[in-house]
Amino acid sequence: MPHSAITPRVIWLLAGEASGDVLGAHLMQALHARDPHLIFVGIGGPRMEALGLASLFPMRDLAVMGLVEVLPRIRQLSQRLNEAVNDVVLRQPDMIVTIDSPGFALRFLKRLRHVTVPKIHYVGPQVWAWHEKRVHSFPELWDRLLCLLPFEVDWFGERGVAVDFVGHPVLQSGADQGDARRFRLRHGIEDDAPILILMPGSRRSEVPRLLPVYGKMLALLQEKLPGIVPVLPLSPLVAQTVRAAVARWPVKPIIVTELHDKHDAFAAAGAALTKSGTSTLELALAHVPMAVAYRVNPLTAFMARRMIKVKYVAMVNLLAGREVVPELLQERCTPRELADASYALLTDPSLGTSQRAAFDEVMAQLRPPESLAHNGTPSDAAAEAVLRILNERSSSRPTEAGG
Questions:
Q1: What 3-state class would DSSP assign to 41?
Q2: Nearest to 383 by CA among 32, 141, 142
Q3: What distance in Å separates the CA atoms of residue 151 and residue 38, rounded to the nearest whole number?
Q4: 398 exposed, middle or buried (CB, 10 Å; 0-12, 13-18, 19+)?
Q5: How many whole angstroms separate alpha carbon 403 and alpha carbon 92?
């Protein structure tokens, strides 16, 4: 077929935070492998931009969470929402794929209900944990939901939402491919020095709440483990903020922003403290014993506790159906409790052995179904689902290239 006869199809992508940027980049690669003529537009971060996406505005403008934390940003978020909606209306893409970030993505999709373009939302909003009533609006917002967790298929399906389980992309993150020896050599760490991973989050709104607690925790932990080496794997979005905040810590941490260095750190670590979220699955894949630490604005915590309907916050615990890793949240997220938990994980091998066995059980649940992935990755399964809907619609509406 002559090149002039090919009309490239345009997919409008929205990612609003670091984890969504990773998902979006993997999805772009998997889609391009199947259709190299696809054009991607929309909003994404550095990983999506490295694959050719010219982000409409910086993704970091959307990286905010919390009921109270979002209030000072309302005007800017509203402006960015208008820009995104207007861009879609002008471009008339062949498909819209929103990736996680439900606070922004659902408002975006609501504004686009009148736009007759197939829509997919990638990553199920955690309405099974709270805000269950919101699920009733989902069928009118998108054509298909791609979920990452196996139990979500039945939960959403029973509530009238068309859903595919595509597996969890943490499986292709490479978190389990690190080299411990390389990390110690690169950073000049003694062979017997205990390494503790500290993960404060990837959003500018959450990092300031955990960092001071981590700093005080290290002062206490250093008394029992004088050679402790803290390592902070960070998103580039918050690296500068964190460097300034840790300058006066009693133990100087090693800050890593490169993905391969992060995975090497996982391989070398004896334990980790992490916020809840995907980071718990990354650490589980890498077999790093952990405790979950999290602290938000007290008002946000008060409101969340009244609405949360699940027993656990950590994804590892939710999938295992029991407390595999300690959850030190809000009032329990204190320097003393974190220091005690870290010391136990670093010095009691039986705790690590027990956690690692549970991690393997959890990871097995996250593999994509054979019907979608054909022995491929979760991103392959997601790409297959996206193209299936795109191809179904292509035959019933004109294809237009983006402007």
A1: strand
A2: 32
A3: 32
A4: exposed
A5: 9
Q: What percent of the chain has pLDDT over 90?
A: 67
* Residue among 63, 130, 57, 56 at smallest CA distance from 103: 63
Measured distance CA(345)–CA(355) in Å, rounded: 10
Please report the DSSP string for 284-340 in residue order.
HHTT--EEEEE---HHHHHHHHHH--SS-SSHHHHHHTS-SS-EEEGGG--HHHHHH
Q: What are phi and psi of 53, to 5 degrees?
A: -80, 125
Residues 295-324 have a mean pLDDT of 72
Per residue in 231-252, pLDDT tens? 999 887 788 888 888 988 989 9
Rounded mean pLDDT of the chain?
88
Write the CB contacts of 198 (distance below 8 Å, at least 6 apart in sequence).
Answer: 214, 230, 231, 232, 253, 272, 273, 274
Residue 22 and residue 173 in contact, taking contact as beta carbons nearer than 8 Å: yes
Residue 367 backbone dihedrals phi, psi, to 5 degrees: -70, 145
The answer to whether the beta carbons of residues 280 and 290 sit under 8 Å apart is yes
Q: Strand 254-256's sheet: what is its strand order? A: 254-256, 229-233, 195-199, 271-274, 290-294, 327-329
User: What average pLDDT does the segment 165-187 reach?
Assistant: 96
Q: What is the DSSP code (8-state) at residue 132?
A: G
Residue 357 sits at the vertex; the CA angle it makes with 353 and 358, to the nearest 5 degrees, is 120
Number of Cβ within 10 Å of residue 207's Cβ equals 19
Which residues are registered as beta bridge partners of 59?
none
Choose between 190 and 73: higher pLDDT: 190
pLDDT digits (tens, 9 = 90+) for 107-116: 999 999 999 9
pTM exceeding 0.90: no
- Tell me how far apart the alpha carbons of residues 57 and 42 are, in angstroms, rounded to a whole number: 9
Side chain identity at 203, as an amino acid letter? R
- CA nearest to 381, candidates 95, 23, 135, 102: 23
* DSSP for 223-253, written as a single string: HH-TT-EEEEE--TTTHHHHHHHTTT-SSPP
| Domains present along the chain, CATH in parentheses | 3-167+368-394 (3.40.50.2000), 180-364 (3.40.50.2000)
The stretch 335-345 carries a mean pLDDT of 97
- Written as six digits, the tokens of 211 are 């960092």
